[in-house]
Amino acid sequence: MIEVKVFGGLGNQMFQYAFYKYLSKMNTDVLMNISDFNVHHHHHGFELERVFGLTGPYNRDQSML
Question: What is the reported pTM?
Fold first, then answer.
C-alpha cells in the first residue's frame, strides 16, 4: 500500500493529486491520506472534492506509517 500524504493549500493538493494519479498508473494499491485536515485547518481545508468533484480513495484516519 502506497499513501500520498495530502497537505497544504489547493495548489499543493493539485500537485499531490497528480503524483497520486501517476503512482496509481504504476501500482493499483495507492490512496491519498488526507488525515492532516482532521487536525490542522490549512487554508480552506481539503478542496479537491469541493473544487473539482474528485473522489477517493482516501484515508481520512491517521496513518500507521
Answer: 0.80
